[in-house]
Amino acid sequence: MDSLKALEEYLKSKDNAENFFSSSEIPPICKSEACMLGVDEAGRGPVLGPMVYGVAYCPLSQKKILESLGCADSKALTEDKRDEIFTKMLTEQESIDNVGWKAEVISPKYISNSMYRRAKHSLNEVSMNSAISLIQMVLDGGVNLAEIYVDTVGPPEKYQAKLSEIFPNIKITVAKKADSIYPIVSAASIVAKVTRDHALKVWNFKEGLDMDHSQFGSGYPGDPLTKKFIREQIDHVFGYPLLVRFSWSTAELMLQEKAATCTFEDIDESPNKKAAGTKSISTFFSPKDKTSRKRHKFFQERCLKMTNAFE
């Protein structure tokens, strides 16, 4: 990956209903010298689009490279400036030789399904699991991590204790607004923000909507274009396109107002519901020929899948 165009092509090639990763090559120096790694996210609050977790890492001896790239408080940088810095990370030889990065794009569907699961996963849990998996992947790639800096999710003390337990041989620092304090976290934030921005720019509506990011806005609930999208792009039966985090209150309230009302029966969880060895009634109607059939185009176009209600 050597340009923002290449990043967009990569993002466009992925299934935006599922989580996926993007990353740089690991600089060889990061396997031999002690390194620091920063963790940050982008898109935690929006009702539209993915949340992206990013990590960046480089040798402790090469802090000056982060300064020369312009890594500072990423929230104070314009979108153009973040694109410029990320382009340098992709193209300038000094950066390629010393700075590595990895990002996880967490789909809106995954976020909402996690929050609606029977054993619910909060957004904090989704965030922490992503950060932990990214750190572990970097370690598995052979990077010699000595220090980790993380922009906190929830109370920093608890998060730091959790990470220290998982990675006991690495110095862990978890802090509020870490991206404005530690350049390596700012670099991670730039990776996350640029990846999310461009994921929205090339978003492919599987539902057949013909529109681009300029028509649905930033995805934040206060954005007028996002409000318009949430108000207008709702199907009476199927609800929202996959771009929408349907577990967000903004979307929930609109679904309650405009979508068909659904009533779900309570599941009988009695252990004596069925005697041992008794066949389920559905088995009498199951075809003897187990050959799988191709799913109807109606379900394919709407990205509908079979699910187990008892999960």
TrEMBL record:
UniProt protein name: Ribonuclease
Sorted UniProt keywords: Endonuclease, Hydrolase, Metal-binding, Nuclease
E.C. number: 3.1.26.4
Function description: Endonuclease that specifically degrades the RNA of RNA-DNA hybrids.
PROSITE patterns in alphabetical order: RNASE_H_2
Top-rank lineage group of the source organism: Eukaryota
GO MF assignments: metal ion binding; RNA binding; RNA-DNA hybrid ribonuclease activity
List of residues binding a divalent metal cation: 40-41, 151
GO cellular component terms, A-Z: ribonuclease H2 complex
